[in-house]
Design goal:
Chains A, B: InterPro entries: Endo/exonu/phosph_ase_sf, Endo/exonuclease/phosphatase, Sph/SMPD2-like. Chains A, B: This is Sphingomyelin phosphodiesterase 2. The structure is a homodimer of 406-residue chains. Chain A is α+β, with helices and mostly antiparallel strands and 406 residues long. Helices cover 39% and strands 23% of the residues of chain A. Chain A has two domains: 277 residues, Endonuclease/exonuclease/phosphatase (Deoxyribonuclease I, Chain A, 4-Layer Sandwich); 108 residues. The two termini of chain A are 33 Å apart. Chains A and B meet through strand 5, helix 4 and helix 8 of A and strand 5, helix 4 and helix 8 of B.
Amino acid sequence: MEGEPTLRLRIFNLNCWAIRYLSKRRQQRVRLIGDTLRQEGFDLVLLQEVWSEQDYSELKAKLAGSYPFSHYFRSGVIGSGLCVFSRFPILDTLLYQYSLNGYPYMLQHGDWFCGKSVGLVVMKISGIIFNVYVTHLHAEYCRDKDAYLPHRLVQAWELAQFIRHTSKAADVVLLGGDLNMHPEDVGIRLLRGWTGLQDAFAEAMRFEGCKNGCTLVPDNCFTDKSELLPFPLGIRIDYILYKAISSFTVKCEELKTTTGRAPGTDIPFSDHEAVMATLHIQRQGQPAGATLGTPEPALADVVAEARAEVGAGLRAARRQRYSSGRMAVLALLLLLLQAAAALATLAGLGAEQPFPKLSFCLLAFLALGVLVLATGLHLFRTMEVKMLHGTEDQMWMVLRALQERP
Amino acid sequence: MEGEPTLRLRIFNLNCWAIRYLSKRRQQRVRLIGDTLRQEGFDLVLLQEVWSEQDYSELKAKLAGSYPFSHYFRSGVIGSGLCVFSRFPILDTLLYQYSLNGYPYMLQHGDWFCGKSVGLVVMKISGIIFNVYVTHLHAEYCRDKDAYLPHRLVQAWELAQFIRHTSKAADVVLLGGDLNMHPEDVGIRLLRGWTGLQDAFAEAMRFEGCKNGCTLVPDNCFTDKSELLPFPLGIRIDYILYKAISSFTVKCEELKTTTGRAPGTDIPFSDHEAVMATLHIQRQGQPAGATLGTPEPALADVVAEARAEVGAGLRAARRQRYSSGRMAVLALLLLLLQAAAALATLAGLGAEQPFPKLSFCLLAFLALGVLVLATGLHLFRTMEVKMLHGTEDQMWMVLRALQERP
């Protein structure tokens, strides 16, 4: 039905890199982001890495006129960093915190403290129900030897499962976020294959911005140039994905990225480029059919590939759980030995204490410290093993179902 | 349409109390549970507190004939303890881990280590889509001064939100589990009010079992009699809840509980009684309408009451976060002071070290220990504050929407 009215939706997505005390020129950039959003008047704004609630409050106050509806998702120690601003009322929200998200002792990476999550906001625009998801997955610190790949794959899987299970009554699904994966990575293929989401960059009728739609580019003065050496054009890790579930079609009329600096200024919004999409949503005569969960021919291969990576992560986690357990047992044995020696000395069994008191005490404290740390690590690894194992199982179930289908 | 065929579904729910090394006569009871389930041939079995994967595997092997489909939900250090056995194929699963679940340092309670969660399995029986949820909420250790009430309320809220968001394509929703709340508690009223779930015990046409449907009764040889002193008949904390979403009606034909011992034996299945429901599901001529989210007249009051409790928890968590932060700062100051004293001695500023070396070292280790523990506690309390605040916010949003409705 060509005559049906079209809904035009302008979406803005940005990883804001707004870490208090650490991100360069944070306050200036947050002000700039707020000013631009107010001027441009998008319909929907999806932000990541707004770590400080004060930054969110300032944005909220500034944007109250043009985006009267907003939501900030709280989680973890620092916060999820995720928030949404909207021209249209937010009817409902839900937060799903990923079960794996790096390691608390990797302080220099800090992902664990963020409680990485996916946030869902439900909206009704012109009678169309939108499920809008915003997320930020675990960062990739070393592509060649990516220790976090299994965790990121678990996150991509949980994201896909969360979208599938929560979007069944939606007409249109939108996902924006920093997925920390290149377009050809197994996690993206898994997410897209298992949810049926389409990539706005690939589908856009018009594109304007960094070459290949990159969102981490050498032209941006805040990016780490050494990290981008293997990718002279930059990399694409920030996405807007979409799909229609019921009797609607979604088309991406235009996709834009910023190009190393905010429009009309000399500094960028962030170390990431913003992604801006203009979508057309139109009611179809007939239901679009089972877009949800339609298996692409190659889906089973993708799930198998992801499952192999998760399995490798599981084996590594099991080895590390064993090591930390062994370390805890050794420390406990040392402590017991020391206790026995101390008791023997007290009981007057030994003629004289063989060690100087200070070294003896220092050793005991060292052993106690190792025992506490190794036990904590062992518990953490046990959780990691449980979640990797659970995901591997789920993937296996899906794989079997896919292979059994004609 | 009276002529539509009726689906009759027999459901078994039990908190199995199967903690390795701790629960009395565990192996015997798990065998007994397995034997009974095999004999009785229920359609659907929802179990909690199956902490050991070995117990699950043994049950799975024993029940392979009568319940060919099953799922075990892994989470936390110990596991979620949740599993499902079914006569009908399980199409899909999803696990949602509650964001708050007690405190890791409350070792004697141990809830934190279990990663308490809600598990979802999706099934299609006779063309009817069932969303089946199984869960176990945080225990109540002291009813008069329930320190975990805010956490349990956050869990009840997250459970309700998870069910609402994931069940939109389901025809029938079933929830079984140990909710650790009495029927009149605010958490149960919140859960039922916000999801529209009905209580099988209250709706049952026939009931047989412990008086008032109690599931923790003094007649059970494993229950702690002192805990039940204020409740001579026992308490009801295990539930089967249900609702129809689309054009179906669900009726509870019969509800049964065990009565302090397993049928035909002298020992109980567990310290909890099993709950067994026989449901009738029938297609209606017309859609049942918006059962989902229908606000009961008193719903706003219930949400406000729950929000007040969460708010009280938030204030307490903030105070404790402050205390732990202050403790960490004091320990750090002491350490710095000691470091300065040690440096001064080394530099020959003081004539002689004023403390004996051993006491000096012991004090430093003590300060270090306090610093590490207080910092850990501070981080944990920060997460707690975030989640309580987030839930309070969500409840406020819902409250506002409920009050704005005509």
